[in-house]
Write a structure and sequence with these properties.
The chain has helices at residues 19-23, 42-49, 66-71, 90-95, 108-124, 126-134, 163-172, 188-193, 201-207, 227-230, 250-258, 298-316, and strands at residues 2-7, 29-34, 54-57, 77-80, 99-101, 155-159, 178-182, 196-198, 210-213, 238-241, 264-267, 287-289. It has 348 residues and is an alpha/beta fold. It has 2 domains: 2-106 and 297-316, Rossmann fold; 108-289, Rossmann fold (3-Layer(aba) Sandwich). The strands form 2 sheets. It has a 7-stranded parallel beta sheet, with helices on both faces. A 5-stranded parallel beta sheet has the order 2-1-3-4-5. The longest helix has 19 residues, at 298-316.
Length: 348
């Protein structure tokens, strides 16, 4: 039997670049279709993938909604090369008996590393000083700097205490006086093992010197942090976001920064990406910006290829993929539980 696997918006645009995935499909007759130019709309996706057995996608905004799932005539699996599922409607997938899967442990270390770097950089105002020196300044920068505090006298607050939040805590524990977290689903034993206290959200916002956000974007978390939350923060506090731009009410964050209600921010994600050229963040000295690069590394990209290869192999051989995003689904095929498998460079 020939299985049709369609990669609708590929990062890698040749069969040779997907050699890692191919190693998992040995013994299977796989017709791999790499769509170029990418299919990014409902109509484009269905035009190329309506008869696919497996659909692969990478884009953060590639739509998988009721229309698309209804039009995937025989699809068993929709698999993302990534962790965020902002554009996927899991309930629609479940209604149409299609498994959706992501890379649940993808880039955990990378995002935690970048978060730690942004916290240190914002605390020491490194980006501000670097820009000034590149512009030929020296002493002129000091009057523009905000007070610098000793980090081992300060408190870090994590909003979200999943895989990434825990890794941030591991990295920052030696530097901080105290680390606290808000997460309604956090396990108290996991928190205690990392010397992290679990607090309610208002307390985290009011007390902490650094607020770092680590929640997925969903209908429940969109706009989670807005004016009412931001105005609770200390004027000396720094705000860090490496999760998703939509978790924050961006106009409210711009306002508190413009009014000096907080000391600054360090951001890797934005409501609109790429960020518009005239975005207010671009002119704010107290804001450190990176262009949604926190998940990238040689290791994370190799791990992604291995995990996607295994997920597709599992489903085509009669097993569930390693990570099912809609666990209540009744698949179109009778699939056994996923066998134990650990990808290269895994955190587990």
């Amino acid at each position: 039997m020939t299985w049709k696997v369609v990669y609708i918006d590929p990062w890698r645009k040749s069969d040779e670049q997907l050699a890692i995935e191919r190693t998992y499909w040995d013994g299977l007759d796989v017709d791999l279709v790499i769509v170029d130019p990418p299919a990014r709309t409902e109509q484009e996706i269905l035009a190329v993938a309506h008869d696919a057995d497996v659909v692969l996608f990478a884009g953060q905004y590639t739509p998988f909604n009721e229309t698309v799932f209804a039009g995937l005539e025989k699809c068993l699996l929709v698999q993302r090369y990534g962790i965020g599922m902002d554009s996927v409607d899991p309930e629609a997938a479940t209604r149409h008996n299609i498994i959706v899967s992501n890379l649940a442990v993808f880039c955990v270390h990378e995002v935690a590393d970048q978060t730690a770097a942004l916290i240190y950089g914002a605390a020491r105002q490194i980006a501000l000083c670097d820009r000034a020196l590149h512009q030929g300044q020296w002493a002129e920068i000091r009057p523009r700097m905000k007070p610098v505090h000793r980090m081992n006298q300060q408190t870090l607050g994590l909003i979200g205490f999943g895989r990434i939040g825990k890794e941030v805590a591991r990295r920052m524990r030696p530097a901080m006086h105290r680390i606290v977290a808000h997460d309604p689903w956090a396990n108290a034993e996991d928190a205690a093992a990392l010397d992290v206290e679990l607090w309610d959200l208002p307390s985290v916002l009011q007390v902490c010197d650094y607020i770092s956000v680590h929640v997925p974007l969903s209908p429940a978390t969109r706009g989670l942090i807005g004016w009412d939350e931001l105005k609770k923060m200390k004027r000396s506090a720094l705000f860090i976001n490496t999760s998703r731009g939509g978790v924050i009410n961006e106009p409210d964050l711009i306002r508190v920064l413009q009014e000096d209600r907080i000391a600054g921010a360090a951001l890797d994600v934005f409501e609109e990406e790429p960020m518009p050229a005239d975005h207010p963040f671009r002119t704010m000295e107290q804001v450190t910006l990176t262009p949604h690069t926190s998940g990238g590394s040689v290791h994370s990209h190799i791990e992604a290829q291995h995990t996607v290869g295994q997920a597709v192999s599992n489903v085509l051989r009669g097993f569930l993929p390693p990570h099912v995003f809609n666990p209540g689904v009744t698949p179109r095929a009778d699939l056994k539980p996923a066998p134990d498998w650990t990808p290269p460079f895994s955190i587990d």
